[in-house]
Amino acid sequence: xxxxxxxxxxxxxxxxxxxxxxxxxxxxxxxxxxxxxxxxxxxxxxxxxxxxxxxxxxxxxxxxxxxxxxxxxxxxxxxxxxxxxxxxxxxxxxxxxxxxxxxxxxxxxxxxxxxxxxxxxxxxxxxxxxxxxxxxxxxxxxxxxxxxxxxxxxxxxxxxxxxxxxxxxxxxxxxxxxxxxxxxxxxxxxxxxxxxxxxxxxxxxxxxxxxxxxxxxxxxxxxxxxxxxxxxxxxxxxxxxxxxxxxxxxxxxxxxxxxxxxxxxxxxxxxxxx
Length: 274
Ligand code: 2HA
Ligand code: ZN
Description:
Layout: H1 7-22, E1 31-35, H2 38-44, E2 55-56, E3 68-72, H3 78-81, H4 85-88, E4 89-94, E5 100-106, H5 117-130, E6 137-141, H6 144-149, H7 157-166, H8 171-174, E7 179-182, H9 190-200, E8 205-208, E9 212-217, H10 220-242, H11 252-262
Parallel strand pairs: 7-8
Antiparallel strand pairs: 1-3, 1-6, 2-5, 3-4, 4-5, 6-9, 8-9
Helix pairs in contact: 5-9, 7-10
Pfam families: Aldolase_II
EC number: 4.1.2.19
Organism: Clostridium lapidicellarium
């Protein structure tokens, strides 16, 4: 099968365009990676070029050895992926040590994987380990309202989680483990990759202060849906704060009732009395 005809590539492209329409991907902002399954890669094997050079990743991810990833290109625009997939996204293969990658499809004209590839791969590494391989997607967006909140709320996971849970009843059910927060750091490097992947042990959503958000998911739909839910909740909070703040809200004891009814575990550290 042609790479561009396979379902995982079509689903990946759909996410990039939906996300552009959301307004989260100005210029080359944001990036996406998908860990391809063995069956999916077998289906497109004939179109892969295994002869390219290995390039250093900059981080070590031994449990991703020999895995294939579909990834957006560095400097590429989400809005252009749909128009010219082969120039804007590509498939890379990790080497047997988890320290180098090579391009096997796409990323035409010398393009490289996203500048945030270290953060993507270190987060994939953690998520693969703790979900028994079920997690396949890491998605970074410049979600407007979440970024705005990082200028106003304390940069504390307990506060972000609790405030965003309060903004829509379904939130604690969609992200019961809460939201991690990384203080401002230089993007694109290994330090922010380490910090993000550490938080990915506990959370599926990690906010980068004054920059954006990382979301993890088993499918492209679930990662996008998670980003969409968290950003919607942030939008409501921005509106509420702009209207002078809450007059009433969902209480800690309401959340305990919700947890019982929906069979989710909500960590008590987020249900503090205010
Ligand atoms: O891809 O979003 O964080 C550009 C970025 C860097
Ligand atoms: Zn970014």
